[in-house]
From TrEMBL:
GO terms for molecular function: hydrolase activity, hydrolyzing O-glycosyl compounds. This is Glycoside hydrolase family 16 protein. PROSITE patterns: GH16_2. GO terms for biological process: glucan catabolic process. It comes from Mycena sanguinolenta.
Length: 336
């Protein structure tokens, strides 16, 4: 046992030298800013597969209702905040889902976000998937949460056969259940959250920083999410706008990035017991704001969030409560 441990330890050390020498520096292939979002993304006016109280609108409607808005250097994407929904036969409140035209396998994506949607009933997400035969092809949730509760949770979803080790080099922690507003990284039962199989739940990592999600993220002026995907690992980092350790290549949106200098990620998904090329296809970036649905609207989740009424009733009847339900982006940079 001891001998085997040392052999594998030395192989790992060698592999990490190889990867930092060959794989950690990337060049910028896309710099998506302002009106560039309209060129890089498609609007998905689809029926929400997650049963949200939402009506995803097309580009024409989004622009005419000012649900998306681009200036020279920022892009806003939001849910409707002006309309009382008084017809239960509709699917709900207008909102927007956009999907990148380009798809990516190995890459780094850096999201410079000034503000994210907040409010009871909101379910904002920045994620990547292929989707055609989901859960085949996998899914990476980079920024996700509901009802202003807790921290950002980073999650992988796959078909059966991809699991994560309990011990990993990350600053976040494995939460006790698929969704927990719990914010304290103490010892817990973590068996369920190590299986990325979406029919079990998914393998999540709670970022463990209040500034990573919702009203606190917004009060701090937002921050940066970054993901590095290789054939042997997926890492996600988060830095608050107020953090003092933001790497210069991240804060300046540089033309190259060197992830070797970014420190320990908030979430680390190694390939110890998951063959990444088998479970993850080329992914599009998806940004959306859902309301209620399978996550935010789940009765136990909504009730435990301290939000009033029922999710659907609240979303339908309180348009002004969604005044702050908007994403505000400085940029998205892709490096390959
Ligand atoms: C956009 O959606 C509106 C409302 O459903 C519809 O009337 C319009 O034809 C759509 N436009 C396009 C270009 O699909
Ligand atoms: C659309 O939204 C932007 C950003 O909030 C705002 O600056 C602009 O005035 C709005 N336009 C209209 C016509 O309301
Ligand atoms: C529903 O709301 C619209 C305005 O948003 C209003 O014109 C209409 O009268 C309302 N209908 C009912 C049945 O309350
Ligand atoms: C990337 O950063 C690592 C760690 O600081 C360094 O060893 C390596 O030389 C850097 N790579 C490049 C191409 O600058
Ligand atoms: C993880 O990556 C290493 C290096 O490429 C490879 O040898 C190993 O087979 C991979 N593990 C799995 C489970 O795919």
């Amino acid at each position: 046992m001891k001998g085997a441990f040392w052999i594998s330890f030395r192989l790992m050390a060698f592999a990490s030298i190889i990867s930092s020498a060959l794989c950690a520096t990337y060049s910028r292939s896309e710099n998506i800013v302002g009106t560039g979002f309209y060129n890089s993304f498609n609007f998905e006016a689809i029926t929400d597969p997650n049963h949200g109280r939402v009506n995803y609108v097309n580009k024409t409607t989004a622009m005419s209702q000012n649900l998306t808005f681009a200036s020279a250097n920022t892009f806003i994407l939001r849910g409707d905040w002006r309309t009382l929904i008084n017809d239960s036969s509709t699917t709900g409140r207008n909102s927007v889902m956009i999907r990148s035209n380009n798809a990516y396998t190995t890459h780094v994506a850096v999201f410079d976000v000034l503000h994210m949607p907040q409010g009871c009933g909101t379910w904002p997400a920045i994620w990547e998937t292929n989707g055609a035969t989901w859960p085949n092809g996998g899914e990476v949730d980079i920024m996700e949460g509901v009802n202003d509760q807790g921290n950002d949770q980073v999650t992988l979803h796959t078909v059966a056969g991809c699991t994560m080790p309990a011990s990993r080099t990350q600053t976040g922690f494995v939460p006790p259940s698929y969704w927990s507003s719990d914010t304290n990284p103490v010892t817990r039962s973590i068996s369920g959250q190590l299986n990325c199989d979406t029919s079990v739940n998914g393998c999540g990592v709670n970022v463990g920083q209040a500034s990573s999600f919702g009203p606190t993220f917004n009060a701090d002026g937002g921050g940066w999410y970054a993901m590095e995907r290789t054939n042997t690992f997926i890492n996600v980092w988060f830095w608050s706008r107020k953090a003092t350790n933001v790497p210069a290549d991240v804060s300046t949106g540089g033309t190259t990035v060197n992830t070797s200098n970014w420190g320990i990620p908030v979430a680390n998904f190694p390939n110890t017991t998951c063959n990444f090329p088998q479970f993850f296809d080329a992914h599009n970036i998806i940004i959306n704001l859902n309301f209620c649905g399978d996550f935010a609207g789940q009765a136990s989740v909504y009730a435990s969030s301290g939000c009033p009424s029922t999710c659907t009733s609240y979303v339908d009847n309180n348009p002004a409560a969604f005044d702050n339900a908007y994403f505000w982006f400085n940029s998205i940079n892709i490096y390959q």
